[in-house]
Amino acid sequence: MDSIMMYRKTTKNLGEFSGSTSFLKQVELKMLVWSFRNTAGLSTPGVAYGGWEAPDCELRGHFVGHYLSASALMWASTHNETLKKKMSAVVSALHDCQNKMGTGYLSAFPSEQFDRFEALKPVWAPYYTIHKILAGLLDQYTLANNTGSLEMALNEETGGMNDVLYKLYSITGNQKHFTLAQLFDKPCFLGLLAVKADDISGFHANTHIPIVIGSQMRYELTGDPLYKEIGKFFMDIVNSSYTYATGGTSHGEFWKDPKRLASFLDAENEESCTTYNMLKVSRNLFRWTKKVGYADYYERTLTNGVLSIQRGREPGIMIYMLPLGHGESKARSANEGWGTKYDSFWCCYGTGIESFSKLGDSIYFEEEGKVPGIYIIQYISSSFNWNSQNIVINLKVEPVVSWDGHLHVAVIISSNKQKEASTLNFRVPSWANTEAANAFLNDQKLFLPNPGSFLSITREWSSSDKITLELPMSIRLEALQDDRREYASDHAILYGPYLLVGLSSGERNINTDTAVSTFDWITPIPAAYNSHLITLSQEFKNNSFVLTNSNKSITVGMLPESGSNHSVYATFRLVLRNPTSTELLVPEDCIGKTVGLEPFDLPGMVVVERGINQSLGVEDAIGNSDSTFILVQGLDGKSETVSLESARHRGCFVYSSLDLHSSVKLKCSAGSSDVKFKQAASFRLRDGISKYDPISFVAKGEKRNFLLQPILSLRDENYVVYFKIQSNKLSAEF
């Protein structure tokens, strides 16, 4: 069964990452190939990029190889002509360097690095870099039809890794390439897997996962079942003993003790490169076996492990590792947090741009045979032209939301006239509850098989045939892979394939003993709540300031950017105390009404007064009579401001002192002429800086509640992945 490259349309779930194309086009050619030209003895106009592409970095040139692969993958999906010209210019520039060298050698560093490597002298990873360059040239040939890049690959003095050399052999049929590939099979590692020894602890993960990928390529070329079994066993042991709830693996770039992950939850989890490579392993295994488990793994790891490593909608801003420690933040990821757009270029930047260039490469898989078939294994809005059957498959997936509880999928067929009957196979994810699921072909209801299988429909397809799926998404718990008793209660919370994390600096205790059902301790946040979010700001000393929750005390802080802890602390939900039948549409509707202020990250708590001239704090909302304020027009007389009057102490208002970091208090007016008081008690009513993700829940904790959102939605906020969940009836699906 061969995977099919498809034309990918933008989607709401993945469209936020569509900036990858613009980043690939923005990369400056002269800066990209500067070190290649320098090594070849050509003129070097301009300057080189920094980071791992800097002229003094021994790994320089690796990103150029990734760029060639990423641009080829993106072009294969989009056929963007500007990108085509750009990547062809890069290949041409590298060709000039190779010609100038005259030996077939092509790299951004001199060949003496290989001499040092063979002499066991200190050097970084020359074969790693050559592998990336060669892989990029082959992708330009196989995906973008650049025949010149194949000629360059054939001239390259690589000594590269097994995967790319087996690929080269598959194109050329030259036995020398096959023999050279075998030399890099690393029997000290593959041999352990061949005898099914679970002994990968201590190995560098991103060095050895590609060796497994190479062995998979060897299986495809030779049919030797040993290498198929190696891939299956490797995936089994990684998934059972070394994998986080994101689908990722590794700590500090290495595999540590199996089923002891609690000891390694910090800022150095899950190197991004390992995630990129594990997806390749699972993709190959699915192609061979058609087992849904591999497709489920791909979905989970793509959703949480790949989409989480880019900073929101900022292409070119990525992290090296994905922190999973209690109260960690992506901004504190190992290797200095977020990289910079043009001065980092770590290995994970290279695999990152490839990952975001092929978000749609594993949606459709074609199976040839007497009755040809298509397997649809990822539900991502897209279209696929199945030329051999005169069919266009249009896949539309509605954005997932927490308040609906279903994944809604529609597939509409366009066909001039199909040649013969064919089969469409739809993955029924393992996380789906088929008892409440629905499937229809046009108006006919279909029987859905058990989760972890495929719904298969065979017919002669005609235009306007429509298949609809409604797959229930439930909350489920997944235990941390640690077999020590003291960590038995450590669990991650998932909603379908989405890993939910709690906004927290480290608190993580939940007790569900009194819960009868899931919704007794975890509830979805309604869609309307985003319109209730506010930030209260003031202008003084030529700056903008906000009321902020600082360790459950209300203080004055600088106006923050969104996606940060400070934006979380400066956002509150406006809660009507005596709601009528009229729905709150916008905060201005609350003028003249009694309200409460709920901190964004502390659902179930409220801002409270602690007496006149005393600082405001944050406490539990239940039974608290000191949390009610009357929202009135601003005392300063400005139309855009409001003031908060105490419901218990009329004539007393929330007051800021107009001073950064000062405590916010409840103060009483000294009279109508007190201009400073009126200014300090008046606030601009802004939309909340932070927003609820469409997939948001509230989980009841022991001492506080937690706002849960997908890990992919966060930028710089602190979060907790694994909660300590105490329950006498704990189960995988509550």
Give the overall shape, derived from the CA principal axes.
globular
Task: Give the low-pLDDT segments.
Answer: 1-17
Q: Largest sheet at a glance?
A: 9 strands, mixed
Mean pLDDT: 91
What fraction, in percent, of the residue positions are helical? Answer: 25-40%
| Rg, Cα atoms, Å | 29 Å
The count of β-strands is: 32
Beta-strand residue percentage: 15-25%
Outline of the structure:
The chain is α+β, with helices and mostly antiparallel strands. It is 28% helix and 22% strand.
How would you describe this structure to a colleague?
The protein contains 18 helices and 32 strands. It starts with a strand and ends in an 8-residue tail after the last strand. With 734 residues, it is an alpha+beta fold. The model is unreliable at 1-17 (pLDDT under 50). It is 28% helix and 22% strand. Strands 12, 13, 14, 15, 16, 29, 30, 31 and 32 form a 9-stranded mixed beta sheet that branches. A 6-stranded antiparallel beta sheet has the order 4-5-6-11-8-9, with no helix packed on it. A 6-stranded antiparallel beta barrel has the order 17-20-21-24-25-28. The chain is globular, with a radius of gyration of 29 Å.
